[in-house]
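Record Maleylacetate reductase, 352 aa.
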Amino acid sequence: MRAFVFPGLTTRVIFGEGTIARTGEEIARLGHSRALVLSTPHQKPEAEALAASLGARAAGVFAGAAMHTPVAVTEEAVAAFRASGATCVVSLGGGSTTGLGKAIAVRTGADQVVIPTTYAGSEMTDILGETSGGEKVTRRDPAIRPEVVIYDVDLTLTLPVGMTATSALNAIAHGMEALYAPDRNPVIVAMVKEALPAFRDALPVLARDPGDRAARAGALYAAWCCSTALGYVSMALHHKLAHVLGGSFDTPHAETHAILLPHTTAFNEAAARAALTPIAATFGGGSAGAGLWDFARAIGAPLRLADLGLTEADLDRAAGIALRNSYDNPRPFTERDIRDLLQAAWEGRRPQ
Ligand code: NAD
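=>
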């Protein structure tokens, strides 16, 4: 027997095609009459179209969301939120936009309706990472977790092929670490087991045809499962290393996760083989780490940290930073272990 605590799931989730049309009724259901719509500059046209469709319920659009939630952008957005008379935010986009919505919510008490358009998985979590002065600080707080998430398969059809692959591997990383999390529970493990074959089946199709609606639906469903895993159990070495590289070397979020994943999985497999069986069983390859590397290569994902502009001297520094704070991981490690892992990821070697 394995004892567990299941904390319950609090976020209301709407999943389907064309579901963005239900945004207005969800704002009203939360008791709000005016919402500020958020996006990146790139997705401003979609945010403006959503605001137009909301009519009097839209208090305006703030299209300045940026990667890693810079505090300076948040301060500008909070001022725009207050000036607009909104009491609620609608975050339309990937993790960057969701992060901005969370940063506004935690400062103002605003409710959040999130409409995710990537597979990064911030929408179901109580986690917020913010940057200022070149440093990224992450916290968990129940006030950060969005009230409503609207998954609309239609909005993912435009996600470019490269980002589709890396964002999906980013999601799988949440599922991978959830499988060995000390605070895992049967509901979360079942959701991860749902997600793995869904991603395995969808991604090769999307690599050939990013407009395949059935595959898009499968990938978004899997992303919801993995986002929930990230939101309700603890993460370990993989997320720590991705955070170090993204936070201190400004490497792109999804690509960093994608490249590290086979290596962090292989490293922890030595201590958590039974827990990681669902990955080995889903992706083949003889082991979970090798199976994920083969899958990443097959769907055209990047494999080498060297291609993100990192140098071997950067790896020395990253290994030192990763050791600074202690955190739970199924396999104990030294600075040398981390340096070796980073070297393998830098070269893009296939794990055994
Ligand atoms: P992103 O949100 O930065 O999006 C990348 C680019 O893709 C943006 O220009 C965006 O506008 C565009 N884009 C998004 N969806 C699109 C679509 N369907 N079609 C066309 N273009 C689209 O990238 P991301 O990987 O989703 O998010 C990364 C950020 O999210 C990082 O800052 C990371 O720290 C954060 N994150 C946080 C959590 C959490 O729980 N706090 C979880 C995962 C990620």
